[in-house]
Structure formats: C-alpha cells, structure tokens
C-alpha cells in the first residue's frame, strides 16, 4: 500500500500473562452509569438513562501493574479530573445483540481512567457543543493490560470493588454491581446504535466522587480481581 504520508501505528494493549496484544479499534464511554455519580453531576438516575460518547484510540496510554506509570498534565485546563472505570474489551461484534450474544462478545476486562478536562467539558455543555475537547485528548485513557475473561473466576468482575486513591487517600469507592446498566445491557444498547467490532473497548462508567488532580499527584486505580495501577501526573514540559 502506497500512503502519501506515514501511516500511524495502530494502538494496542498487552494481554495479561501473554505475549499477544489487543488492537484497539474504537473507545465507547458510558456516561453516568452509577446512580450516585449521576446525582453529583446534576441528573436524576431514575429518569435519565446513561448515554454514550467516544474517545479516539490515540487517547490510550498503556499502564502496567507494579510499575511507575505517568501521564502529562494536559494543556488548556485547570481542572483535570479522574474517573476510574471498568474497561471491557470486545472479541466479537455485531448489531442488535441479545444479552447472550453480548455476554459472548466480551473477550476480557481491564482497569482504566477516563481523564477529563472538566472545565472545558462544562463550557462545551453550556454552549451545546460536543465534548471532545474535554474528553478526547492525548493520554486521556490510561488502561491496564487486559485480563482474558476465560482466565478469571466466574463472577469476579461483576461482584468486584472498584476504587481510586489520590496520594494514598481513597477518593472513589464502589462496586461493579452498582452499575445502573450492567456490562451486557450496555453492549446491547450500544449495538442498537453502532455495529460493534472486535477491538472495540467500552469504558463502563465511573462511581461518585470524581475530583481534580494536579501535577505531582499519584492516582491508584483498581478493580478487585484485576489489580491496581499507579499513575503519576507529570507537569507539562
């Protein structure tokens, strides 16, 4: 293939315990999929269902267990916020999937952060503009290696605790069971609007108590059964 400019390499994530890698296609994010987070953002979870937005695959930063990971504090913001999330990696796709098909489509899980330039997102909301400037920026999706579903005990994810610490202090703490829409329901709903593909990642939503970080802060994101990753926020160069 003769490209007029250099082709960008496809972003990929490692598979835990394997030399294989997972090629990332698209990143779907679920908005306000924990009731308490929905309330803290000004919505009524009993009235407003979760909704979807996207990050570009180039936003992914692979982060690793038992290593010093870092991201750069991004430009144009003074309110960089963390949102810890369970990430679902699809091994199969399709449209209008049933619950059984949705369950079968899951290849594995990872720990992720949906980093958000909240001030820019809030301004976009007020003006009725898209959210990309607040959500889809470089290094806004730190994600751990993927654990294959087949290698995990039954129910370990659906009953797991999800948490985030900043400088050792617990900021977010909940359970995956508190998702308003389950993983399978999210996949079903997404497949009504999009034809899902192998390689798609789904960030399933964040619990309450999102908050800001500054350069020098260290975030620890965890999902019980998947481990935890430590990420330092570095000052911009």
From TrEMBL:
Residues 27-233 form the Fumarylacetoacetase-like C-terminal domain. It comes from the Bacteria. Its EC number is 3.7.1.20. One of its GO terms (molecular function) is fumarylpyruvate hydrolase activity. The gene is nagK. It is an enzyme of class 3 (hydrolase). Keywords: Hydrolase, Metal-binding, Pyruvate. The keyword Cell inner membrane does not apply. It holds the Pfam family FAA_hydrolase. This is Fumarylpyruvate hydrolase.
